[in-house]
Amino acid sequence: MKELSEHIKSFLSISEDKLTIITEKFVQKNFPKKEHLLRSSDRVREVYFILSGCVRTYVYDVNGAEHNITFSMENWWFGDLQNFVNGSPASHNIQALEDTTALTISKQNWDFLLQEIPEFANYTRILFRNTMFAHENRILQNISFTAEERYQYFLKQYPNLSQRISQKHIASYLGITPEFLSMLRRKK
Amino acid sequence: MKELSEHIKSFLSISEDKLTIITEKFVQKNFPKKEHLLRSSDRVREVYFILSGCVRTYVYDVNGAEHNITFSMENWWFGDLQNFVNGSPASHNIQALEDTTALTISKQNWDFLLQEIPEFANYTRILFRNTMFAHENRILQNISFTAEERYQYFLKQYPNLSQRISQKHIASYLGITPEFLSMLRRKK
DNA sequence: AGCATTTCTTAAACTACTTTAATTTTATTC
DNA sequence: GAATAAAATTAAAGTAGTTTAAGAAATGCT
């Protein structure tokens, strides 16, 4: 649980007592590689703070093809946060790309912490803000960057991840074909 | 103010008294065509509910080129909502594309309504959720649609707007050159 | 109303990216 | 550890989108 405490403290100051109350509400779970943690239209029962491993979040386009929206790795939050909070059905799919260990929290405990610990409410607001910021940044990149520039940015944003996951998943994230990504990599 | 009341009521049920308290906190303002309502790094003093006209929200890329992120028209909210709420400096630029009339609300009054009127807090949560949903949808479109498909979707999402604003702004929103948009339109 | 400026269109040449398909390399499974 | 499946590479041909440039149309300005 230390990782989660550290993550919270990196954004705001909070007493150790309150951190204990928060971390007690989380349960550690393991997901083997390839397992689906969530499929779209499922009820969103929990969200995750990842301790080890990595996952991809993807959606289907109108033709039924998968597109990766985000990857998540150590010390990142992931999950269909919006639909979790709203109690609406999932719009995302989430799949482990490695054997993954994560802390999970139920809606009930989440709501309890929101009410009881103002710092937790603040923290979640920061999480949402960061997500929103990342989304806007990505929209800008998609309309203003070439595939190569997006790939370079990916390498920065997700250090080492390119060695851990398959290139077809990176290509899907970038919105290009695996063949073209392969070509971009050769050029360097 | 009727438009704003109707907009709120379209998402949740609320008493007329509370609606009156809410709408009293808004001030109507006019912005002539071409005027900037916000520039990045400005302090975000207000957000807007638009009664007539339209505006564009744009950002600069690393090369200093402008890219339109959203358009807003009658009965839409706009403004740099995230940075307004957080008190952080603007990351967006906003410019009127037509003579525009909008209701504006200050941070002070916004915070007052959030505290006093639970329905308003709920309403703003819905606004954020919709924005987030729209962003994710746009990311998916950018990585999975062709320019022509994005243009068709734009026409649906912003009915009649294509007759009101210049094509170069639409091209910028779609992430293509005005010349290519012109070609797409001819084809039909 | 008339001149200047901006926007739109067209077309030709170019570049970024896709498709298809065959081959090699890497991972998975029994 | 061999067999099978999945992923990555390469290359050729095709398509989507850009660039440049020049003329036409629309808009803004006094």
Report on the structure:
Two copies of one chain form a homodimer. With 188 residues, chain A is of the alpha+beta class. The first copy, chain A, has nine helices and eight strands. Chain A has a four-stranded antiparallel β-sheet with strand order 1-8-3-6. In chain A, strands 2-7-4-5 form a four-stranded antiparallel β-sheet. The mean pLDDT of chain A is 94. Chains A and B meet through helix 5 and helix 8 of A and helix 5 and helix 8 of B. The structure holds a DNA duplex (30 and 30 nucleotides).
Write the layout of secondary structure elements.
The structure is a homodimer of 188-residue chains.
Chain A: H1 2-9, H2 16-24, E1 27-31, E2 36-38, E3 46-52, E4 55-60, E5 66-72, E6 77-78, H3 81-86, E7 93-96, E8 100-106, H4 107-116, H5 118-144, H6 147-157, H7 161-164, H8 167-174, H9 178-187
Antiparallel strand pairs in A: 1-8, 2-7, 3-6, 3-8, 4-5, 4-7
Helix pairs in contact in A: 4-5, 8-9
Chain B binds a DNA duplex (30 and 30 nucleotides) through residues 146-148, 166-168, 176-183, 185-186.
